[in-house]
Amino acid sequence: MKINLYRTNENLSKAKNIDTFFTTMQKAASDLGFEYCAYGVCPVYSPEPSVPRVINNYPKEWNSTYLTNNYFEIDPTVHHGLRSTQALFWEAKVFKDAPHFWEEAKSFGLRYGLSQSQKDACGRIGMLTFASENQNYTSKMLLRQAPSLIWLSQIAHHRLAEYLLPQECSDIDCQLTKREQDILRWTAEGKTSSEISALMSISDRTVNFHVNNILKKLSVPNKTAATVKAMVLNML
To answer: What's the whole-model pTM score?
Structure first.
């Protein structure tokens, strides 16, 4: 099972809206032997837990069960995707800490799958998943599909993130001064404004002045969010 990369890319490029794009993505999943396709995206640097915005063709009953039970909080594939951009092959050990969730997912036909996440310079992380109930899948077969999944996840994130979580990326063009970077690094280590002022031999007022400038530049509400966002955007 494989896909025509050139034709798929052409069809995805021609898609004018989210429904057409996702239908084409479902076709690619089907060509690879997967009945189900899902994409979710959320901000990486949000200081509060953020439920991702999702589009999928999973069974409606499973989507309802997932939301009702707040499975986002315990879903091992989501936890992995938030930590790593390494492709994840679904297997029993992945779900060892959430056995009930795993059994329930399998009861809806989500038994075998691949998940691949992507991050972008706008501070978003998105994950594309292909899933199937085909019991003939093996780890070797899934491994052969990984290159296509990684390629599709990059395209999916580029387009679907804009549909589901539009965000201005102009803030990536801003520059932090050397002093602002130093203050954020000390903040990341848990130092208070008073401690930072002593370490940098400047007044508390000067520290707070620079912190306020940082918050404005990065369009975030507090120092925690500023530190996380700056790290995501490779500003530190």
So the answer is: 0.73
